[in-house]
Amino acid sequence: MNPIALLARLGRTALAGLSAVGRAALFALGAFSHMLRPPYYPREVLNSLLNIGWLSLPVVGLTAIFTGGALALQIYAGGARFNAEAVVPQIVAIGMVRELGPVLVGLMIAARVTSSIAAEIATMKVTEQIDALVTLSTHPMKYLVAPRVLAALITVPVLVGIGDIIGIMGGYTVAVQNLGFNAAAYLKNTVDFLEPLDIISSLVKGAAFGTIAAMMGCYYGMQSGRGAQGVGRATKGSVEAAAVLILAANFVLTGVFFSL
């Protein structure tokens, strides 16, 4: 390929990427702005709290308990290589609270909630329901976006806290039932080892990941093309973007809390 043509293609790709980042950033700023200004739609917020929080509990709980159990087995097997099997409670606790709990919950929310929001809003756009809202003097950002982002900001940290506890209990069950750990000593070692900053970092990550998941679902839904293919592309793109951004945000936040 001609070097100039290749350079031009790279330039167009870079500009398109920067343009997409700019549009997403402006969309996020607009969403936060509308969250702070009336009118408010409490019924939409309550519906979003139920959908994002309560209905996500089963998948979050199952993911956390299986991960905690597998983590205990892996740490026990790895620790046995240098006579450090006793560290299972501490490593399960810090692994779940600092890293696995927030990330797994964030990815589960991205899979379940982001796709649902994107598909719902994209379908509303295709069927011109969003145009109808505008006709009725209802701002789509206030009615569709702000309640969902606010609900995710509130509920995902709670889900992360619950997921942390369930994951630790999964490790506890495996350690006590299969690996011969004393139940009381396991719980004492877990509680003694965790520090307040571990829990704070877990909840902050949950808030950030929830916001990213809901924001990407709303953004791709509002930017959806026409027809069934447009809805499909919006749903797929929202989940991909949310998953990548959650992992990137996890890296940044881990670095921030690591430096404290």
Q: What's the gist of this structure?
A:
The protein contains nine helices and no strands.
Explain the overall architecture:
It is globular, with a radius of gyration of 22 Å. Helix 4 (88-126) runs parallel beside helix 8 and helix 4 runs antiparallel to helix 9 (227-258). It is an all-alpha fold and 260 residues long. The mean pLDDT is 91. Helix content is 86%, strand content 0%. It is built from nine helices and no strands. It has helices at 3-36, 42-52, 57-79, 88-126, 129-135, 140-178, 183-193, 196-222, 227-258.
Count of DSSP strands:
0
The main sheet comes to: none
Question: Helix-strand pattern, N to C?
Answer: HHHHHHHHH
Distance N to C terminus:
49 Å
Radius of gyration: 22 Å
Given the C-alpha coordinates, what overall shape results?
globular
Tally of alpha and pi helices: 9
- Averaging pLDDT over every residue, what do you get? 91
How are the SSEs placed, and which strands pair?
Layout: H1 3-36, H2 42-52, H3 57-79, H4 88-126, H5 129-135, H6 140-178, H7 183-193, H8 196-222, H9 227-258
Key descriptive features of the protein:
260 residues, mainly alpha
